[in-house]
DNA sequence: TAAATACCTTACTAAAAAGTAGGCTATAGC
DNA sequence: GCTATAGCCTACTTTTTAGTAAGGTATTTA
């Protein structure tokens, strides 16, 4: 058992899950990782099913936990850019592994994601 | 979007999360990975906080999804052994990465897990 | 000036995940 | 025979997580 930030964790993996667990965080992080820098609507539009409430909530938590960096660009069309912090980047092996594994799993189950991804989205 | 087993997934990572997402599955898998073969009570006792209902439920789902193998040993003291299937083992990089990352994260935050783990449990 | 888009927030509700409590079989040890 | 341990299951409740709907500001385009 590990006590950290007033919470109790079973082991280091549990600690990691506390940061990136849940339905959306890993998806958001790996999306930003893939595109390096993303705006709010770009993330939203690439995660079909996420509500704006969920998105801004998760983004806020990821920023609080120093996994992503939020930058407000005060140019003509005011916008926001999200990117990974060093800590967010330190999970890059996870993003690529998870994606590769998922693709291989789908293939084992008869779905060729790489070939058919034009069909989805 | 990917349609698979009557469910809709955003991307391959989402598919993976469908299999090992949630509060306990990754912890159970990585525990079995660490010890190769584990009995029911051994897993339970190493995951403080898990209820027996949760444990047997998650074990059943992991078995259904072909991530773990359950073997009933019919020796004198009847018991059960859980081990990883080939598919469960194909996630081994994830278990080690998650554990290593969690330990490093804790260290960045002032907790030396490797040194202090005798304190926890 | 109306409509559209980016980027959110808040209040409320629903669904999913997890927890509690109890029970049950089988074997073993005293 | 009584208690203990392994290995579960079921019904019920609570908590957590996520979803819906509706604002709201600022700026852009038509």
Describe this structure in words.
The structure is a homodimer of 121-residue chains. Chain A is α+β, with helices and mostly antiparallel strands. In chain A, the strands form two sheets. Chain A has a three-stranded antiparallel beta sheet with strand order 3-5-4. In chain A, strand 1 and strand 2 form a beta hairpin. The mean pLDDT of chain A is 90. Chains A and B meet through helix 1, helix 2 and helix 6 of A and helix 1, helix 2 and helix 6 of B. Chain A binds a DNA duplex (30 and 30 nucleotides) through helix 3 and helix 4.
- Counting DSSP H or I runs of 4 or more residues, the number of helices of chain A is 7
What is the chains' assembly state? homodimer
Q: Order of strands in the sheet with the most strands of chain A?
A: 3-5-4
How do the SSEs of chain A run, as a string of H and E? Answer: EEHHEHHEEHHH
Mean pLDDT of chain A: 90
Q: What percent of the residues of chain A sit in helical stretches (DSSP H or I)?
A: 40-55%
| Residue runs with pLDDT of under 50 for 5 or more positions of chain A | none
Largest interface: A-B, 42 and 42 residues
Main sheet of chain A, how many strands, which sense, barrel?
A: 3 strands, antiparallel
Could you give the distance between the termini of chain A? 43 Å
Cα radius of gyration of chain A in angstroms: 16 Å
Number of strands of chain A: 5
Structural class by helix and strand composition of chain A: alpha+beta
Strand content of chain A: 15-25%
Based on Cα principal axes, name the global outline of chain A. Answer: flat
């Amino acid at each position: 058992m590990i006590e950290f930030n007033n919470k109790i964790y079973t082991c280091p993996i549990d600690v990691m899950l506390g940061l990136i667990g849940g339905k959306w965080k890993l998806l958001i992080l790996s999306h930003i990782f893939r595109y390096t820098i993303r705006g709010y609507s770009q993330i939203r539009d690439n995660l079909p099913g996420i509500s704006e409430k969920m998105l801004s909530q998760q983004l806020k938590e990821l920023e609080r936990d120093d996994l992503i960096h939020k930058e407000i660009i005060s140019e003509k069309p005011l916008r926001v850019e999200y990117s990974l912090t060093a800590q967010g980047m330190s999970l890059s092996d996870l993003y690529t592994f998870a994606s590769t594994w998922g693709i291989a799993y789908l293939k084992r189950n008869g779905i060729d994601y790489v070939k058919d991804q034009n069909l989805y989205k």
